[in-house]
Specification:
The chain is of the alpha+beta class and about 150 residues long. Helices cover about 25% and strands about 40% of the residues.
C-alpha cells in the first residue's frame, strides 16, 4: 500500500479537512508548492489562493484565505484564516462579493483600497476553485474597467 500524508485544514471556526491523502498542493507566498509522503519538515506562510489534494485518484479543491502550513512526519497542518472546500462555495455569494469589491475599487478616493483588493482576491479564488471543481463554466475577469 502506498504511503499517505495526513492533511488537516483548520480555521478558527472549524476543522475543514482531516484525511489521509496522496499529495497536497497549496499556495505559499512564493507560489505553489507540493507535498508528498516523506516530505522534509517545513513551515510556510500561505497567501490567499487555491489548494488541492489528491486522494484515491480524485482531486479535491479548496479556497484558502491566508494562514500557515506545517509539514512534519507525514502530516500537513494548514491553519487558515478561512478555508472552503469547492463543494461548499456559494458561487452566487462569491459573484456578489466580486461585484461589490470592483464597485468599491472604482471609487478609490472613498474607500480602503487594500481592504477592497483583498475582498476581490478572496472572491476570485473562490470562483476559480468553483470553476476547477466544475461548479461554474468560467470565471469573470477581475478588471476594474468602467
Amino acid at each position: 500500500m502506498a504511503e499517505k500524508i495526513l492533511l488537516e485544514v483548520i480555521t478558527p471556526d472549524r476543522l475543514v479537512v482531516r484525511e489521509e491523502v496522496d499529495m497536497v498542493i497549496a499556495t505559499g507566498l512564493d507560489g505553489e508548492f507540493g507535498v508528498l509522503p516523506n516530505h522534509a519538515p517545513m513551515l510556510c506562510l500561505l497567501q490567499t489562493g487555491e489548494a488541492r489534494f489528491k486522494k484515491d485518484g480524485k482531486i479535491e479543491y479548496m479556497a484558502i484565505t491566508g494562514g500557515i502550513a506545517e509539514v512534519f512526519e507525514n502530516k500537513m497542518t494548514i491553519l487558515a484564516d478561512a478555508a472552503e472546500l469547492a463543494r461548499e462555495i456559494d458561487v452566487k455569494r462569491a459573484m456578489r462579493a466580486r461585484e461589490r469589491a470592483l464597485k468599491r475599487l472604482r471609487q478609490r478616493e472613498k474607500i480602503d483600497v487594500a481592504r477592497a483588493e483583498a475582498a476581490l482576491r478572496r472572491a476570485m479564488v473562490r470562483l476559480k476553485v468553483a470553476q476547477r471543481a466544475g461548479l461554474i463554466e468560467s470565471v469573470p475577469s477581475e478588471t476594474i474597467s468602467d
